[in-house]
């Protein structure tokens, strides 16, 4: 019975965490205008 209560409590806490993160939304910010390097530079 304790395991069932612990599992239910964990499920409720995980669901509350997901709802909290969803309510906060995405953080403000923007992406970098510089492109990422996708190739390795040649070695001298």
Report on the architecture of this protein.
- The protein contains one helix and no strands.
- The protein has one helix spanning 2-24.
- The radius of gyration is 22 Å and the shape is elongated.
Spell out the blueprint of helices and strands.
Elements: H1 2-24
What distinguishing features does this structure have?
44 residues
Annotation field: number of helices: 1
- Strand share of the residues? under 5%
Give the low-confidence spans. none
Could you tell me the mean pLDDT?
85
Brief summary:
With 44 residues, the protein is mostly helical. The protein has one helix at 2-24. Residues 25-44 are annotated as: Disordered.
